[in-house]
Design a protein that fits this description.
The structure is a homodimer of 234-residue chains. Chain A is built from four helices and ten strands, in the order H-H-H-E-E-E-E-E-E-H-E-E-E-E. Chain A is an alpha+beta fold and 234 residues long. Chain A folds into two domains: 64 residues, Arc Repressor Mutant, subunit A (Orthogonal Bundle); 142 residues, Chorismate lyase (3-Layer(aba) Sandwich). In chain A, the strands form three sheets. In chain A, strands 4-5-6-9-8-7 form a six-stranded antiparallel β-sheet, with no helix packed on it. A two-stranded antiparallel sheet of chain A has the order 1-2. In chain A, a hairpin with a 2-residue loop joins strand 8 and strand 9. In chain A, helix 1 packs across helix 3 and helix 2 packs across helix 3. The first copy, chain A, is elongated. Chains A and B meet through strand 7 and strand 10 of A and strand 7 and strand 10 of B. Strand 10 of chain A pairs antiparallel with strand 7 of chain B, so a sheet runs across the interface. Chain A binds a DNA duplex (21 and 21 nucleotides) through helix 3.
DNA sequence: AGGAATTTGTGCGTATGTATC
DNA sequence: AGATACATACGCACAAATTCC
């Protein structure tokens, strides 16, 4: 008998194990599950309980249920984790994002930048973004100068927003996205400079705010033939 | 005894009557339903069947279920404006969005569409979107077939999502956006067909979900030289 | 404060309908 | 047409959360 004290209901426990099986590759796309009665017997639960599990997986889009035929796995992409603040993925979907810091400097905010923050200065961070190793975008990030005096390259090991939280105590509460057409800036690495005849890169402007106001404004130039914008709202 | 030949399952029949009661104002916001056993008795159905009905309403976001307390109608009129679900504006900023229905039909979902919903069929709605009177985008919307049997052009006077809420009892809880490059479909009005040499239109794919799963998937083709994507996250 | 009553949540087992193979 | 498999529906028992006295 399955214990259920202080833990998830049985039907959700089963759901979680199945989700793990799917993400671990033990259950692959298109795979047909055993008949519900058999499966319930193997698991030692009632058919009705198993059906609640399967309904839950169907709701999450992980399972296709065909009356008279069977239950079929729908392999699905990633759970959101590190990707929470990164809204680009490969055209083909997914891809692991990495960031390579090109430069960090503290400068007076330029005129073109929309007004934000309390300081006249800002930290200018330029990064090359790769998705699955492929150069996909460049970023120019302006963090308001009031949050810290200096940022070192070593501080931004991988996740900029992890640094914001753990070192600056800065939580992102709001965000605003714009997508426009535009030209890549002159400091762009050669690897990213567009070839003649290709589509004009997009500019994805994102401003991050906490409750006290806007803390950061970033511009991302990405090549629409390589990456696409994705946004998942809770 | 309720007949169920050739028609909806009992638990969905009850759901439909409750949705009508809500949209007609016979059940108002915050109202507490009778205990499940009493309600099932009045309706002449089993508690388990009624619970399936209530789960369905909860899925659509119409009902709040609190263990130990009761079931409460949740029919709040949306505080967000008409623009809440539209993420395009003029390049210059702003602009009043309107929608013109081009066609509505009920069809078997095509293969290319990502799997969503519980029905094999869907409602296919094609619209021309104008911003400040200027043709800016075309939409193809697929609403899962399980929510209603038929949609008439007259039903969608102005806001599609108002129709969803008031007529289908469907509340949108989650959304997912994608932006890709793509070609306009062949049914696009002449007013929107791209001229030679202009940038390729963008495809903005949006899926809308309530708590139980995805209800609608829409594709929006917009001209990036006319409109831009904007998203303001709370 | 505390315990009893109320109400929904979970789980089981069974019977029958209906779509698919 | 028969077998298989999922969908619906019923009823019951107990657990957990809330409410009320």
């Amino acid at each position: 008998m399955r214990s259920s004290k202080g833990s998830l209901p049985v039907y959700l426990q089963i759901a979680e194990t199945l989700v793990r099986d799917i993400t671990a590759g033990r259950l692959i796309d298109g795979e047909k599950l055993p008949p519900e009665r058999d499966m319930a017997n193997e698991l030692g639960i009632a058919v009705g309980t198993l059906r609640k599990t399967l309904a839950e997986l169907h709701n999450r889009g992980l399972l296709e249920r065909i009356q008279g035929s069977g239950n079929y796995i729908r392999a699905v992409t990633d759970p959101q984790s590190v990707y929470a603040m990164f809204r680009l993925e490969l055209i083909s979907g997914g891809g692991f994002p990495t960031a390579e810091v090109l430069s960090i400097s503290r400068e007076v905010k330029p005129e073109e930048l929309p007004p934000f923050g309390t300081s006249k200065e800002g930290h200018r961070i330029r990064r090359l973004r790769r998705i699955a190793g492929k150069a996909a975008a460049i970023e120019e990030i302006w963090l308001d100068g009031s949050y810290t005096n200096e940022i070192e390259v070593g501080d931004l090991s991988e996740s900029l927003y992890l640094y914001y939280r753990t070192r600056l105590g800065l939580w992102i509460a709001k965000a605003e996205d714009h997508i426009d057409l535009g030209h890549v800036p002159d400091w762009s690495p050669d690897t990213f400079n567009p070839k003649c005849g290709e589509p004009i890169p997009h500019v994805l402007r994102i401003s991050y705010s906490h409750e006290g106001g806007t803390a950061e404004i970033s511009h991302t130039w990405y090549d629409p033939s390589v990456a696409r914008y994705v946004n998942r709202l809770r």
